[in-house]
Amino acid sequence: MKNMARPIRLEFPGANYHVTTVAMRMGIFLSTIRIASNFDSAGRGGVPRGLDSACLCADGNHYHLLIEVPNSNLSRGMRQLNGVYTQRFNSRHGSGGRVFQGRFKAVLVERDGFLLELCRYIVLSPLRLKAVKNISRYRWSSFRATAGEVEAPAWLCTEWVLGHFGRSSCCAQRKYAEFVEAGIGLPSPLDKVKSQICWVVPHSSKK
Predict the structure, then answer these.
(1) Distances from the Cα of 202 to the Cα of 107, 190, 194, angstroms
(2) Are the C-beta atoms of 3 and 92 separated by less than 8 Å?
């Protein structure tokens, strides 16, 4: 039987993607080398040049990443990011071979409809997995930095997200945290994915 051809990724300047990468075993992102620290070393400013990160969450054997790609270089940037992680992991553990299960998965996201919903969905992942009862206690996501609880790292772009909640940083951060909390238990916006694209604009959950 011939292998089915892999679907062609849609890449164009300014595209936004929800990216997931799965590791070969559990705990790989929550022990020794953290995926967040890899962003700080993968390129100048963290994420490989040309990838702007709005949201990140590492969950044991996989991580979620929400990024904008200004220069149509998603595949090249992710190869650099995951390649650097693999090299660092193998070097620290004196091992070799693959760290990730195949190539990353990417869903093209409609900016004005799904992007904010996905930012919320991603950082709530530790609650769904019962890793913590309070997401403010979870260190390996971008929630605390976006909510102003800790300093935002260089690789994280919080301006777009917080811009939806007000001009004042303190007010926007508080409303963002309230928005995230209001999303607990809501259906996944990824249920609307068709052919690697979020097609349908969801109803706003904001009051």
Answers:
(1) 16, 11, 14
(2) no
pLDDT tens digits along 58-107: 887 888 888 888 777 788 888 888 887 788 778 877 878 888 887 888 88
- Measured CA to CA, the distance from residue 150 to residue 36 in angstroms comes to 14
Q: Which residues contact 91 (CB under 8 A, 6 or more apart)?
A: none
- Amino acid identity of residue 117, one-letter, is E
Contact status, residue 155 vs residue 84, Cβ threshold 8 Å = no
Q: Which domains does the chain have, with CATH numbers?
A: 15-196 (3.30.70.1290)
Q: How far is the CA of 83 from the CAs of 43, 79, 99, 109, in angstroms? A: 12, 6, 9, 24
Question: What are the structure tokens assigned to 137, written together?
Answer: 């206690």
Predicted TM-score (pTM) of the model is 0.79
61, 49, 42, 63 alpha-carbon torsion, rounded to 10°: -10
**Percent helix, strand and coil across the chain, each rounded to 5?**
35, 20, 50
Measured CA to CA, the distance from residue 86 to residue 84 in angstroms comes to 5
How far is it, in rounded angstroms, from Cα 56 to Cα 37? Answer: 12
